[in-house]
Amino acid sequence: MRGxxxxxxxxxxLIDQITIYENPNPLLVxxxxxxxxxxxxxxxxxxxxxxxxxxxxxxxQLMHVSKSSDYGRSWSSPRPIHNHHYEPFQQSESFKPLLxxxxxxxxxxxxxxxxxxxxxxxxxxxxxxxxxxxxxTNSSDxxxxxxxxxxxxxKGVPLELSGPCIQLAxxxxxxxxxxxxxxxxxxxxxxxxxxxxxxxxxxxxxxxxSENGEVAAWECRLIxxxxxxxxxxxxxxxxxxxRNLTNHIVFSNDGGKHFSPAVDTYINAxxxxxxxxxxxxxxxxxxxxxxxxxxxxxxxxxSGRRFSILEEIDLFSDDKLGSNSEDIRKQxxxxxxxxxxxxxxTNGEVLATCWAFExxxxxxxxxxxxx
Length: 371
Description:
By secondary structure, the chain is mainly beta. Helices cover 2% and strands 47% of the residues. The two termini are 27 Å apart.
């Protein structure tokens, strides 16, 4: 049953939008910015972390941080989190930050090992991918300096850990990810955890697995609502039939150890994210890359573990930003926006962020919402 309620009354307002980062010298150098994550620091500043490289899939992508002292209206020039040169091969980075209860910033994600500058991440004929390594780094001074990223291993499986981890009320850190490959079967969604502030990691559970393992759970994002009540939203992709499915969401009442069956949101979108509003309401954000194309935010009722849309608003809508969904390689290669997120600010506004292709540049966008 479709999740809309009749005669939606829209209370949400888009009150402002900015560009957090765009290349200031596009005639001189290529600096493409993608994959942002934003956290609020103990001193009240916001910190954005995102990758900058010569191109969307370039081998030289490294993580940078930028800060704001005015609730996200203006941002400092981005700085790389390290100046290390990976050997013997370059490694293109993608990390997302999390502020731990002890004030430490923990960034978790992955790198692709790049044998040279012109080998693509996905082979055009075999669909095999380059080697992926999961990595972490941390900062104890509000993101001014960062430790050298180091590899973490979870059962020897490379995971598409593209979203931030979360810290539960219990202190445990958990993340949602899927084993990253483009095979026709063997797909599932994992919950991983650490009980020692990110030093050691293990697999906790599987939050989703289709009957034959043919449905991939990509771009997973998770939140804790009440203590140990977890929700995970994900981009469901049918690898056998090479087609996008609607976003699905799963729920756990025991900190992610077990999950109820996936709930269909009936939202035809790919990369998505979510934020708890209290009670049985969520705020969700969805990248719609098939017509009608755009970035939408929705207020949702999840009482009874259903998914009913209360209201929705467009952050932007433009069919020219759609992707080629003929197969997953072409879809990955034609993305023009994605990895949206939501953050409630201390001034009461909600900051939504994403990366987007705008004026022939990959930039980091910010949108301010009033609920």
